[in-house]
Amino acid sequence: MVRISNSAYLAMLTMGVGLLTYSATPALATSSSSGAAATEPLKIEVMHRPSTCLIKSQKGDKLSMHYDGTLLEGTPFDSSRKRGQPFEFTLGKGQVIAGWDQGLTEMCPQEKRRLTIPSSLAYGDRGAGGVIPPKATLVFEVELLAIKNRKPGKDEL
Fold first, then answer.
1. Where does the record place the PPIase FKBP-type domain (predicted)?
2. DSSP state of 40
3. Which domains does the chain have, with CATH numbers?
């Protein structure tokens, strides 16, 4: 039997590679007092945008990212920065949690964002890796390092 650390397992779960690929679909997260269902929104905060942006991320792009992931109250659970290794995936293909697929579109290389992802767009009622509890809201500080498969076209200049 192969043993892996909780942080390695969590990294695989969080980013949808290796042992388990999980693509969350938007689900009803809360109910209002009137009984009508409501969903929690994905919150996107732009922390830094470069002065020049010749290309923006879109579905199908292979992205190279750095990220730091925490629970809403601040408990860290994973970081590509601490490992010193950027994470690469294809945007919009369900390789990552739905909050990432939605929150990383229209992003410029070197742009930094903070994504606050409700559980309905993350791991929902399941949680992940024994580190992310069920129904957890996640916060990711992300930086797009590069769009690996595309160069700026003349319509993007």
1. 60-148
2. P
3. 43-147 (3.10.50.40)
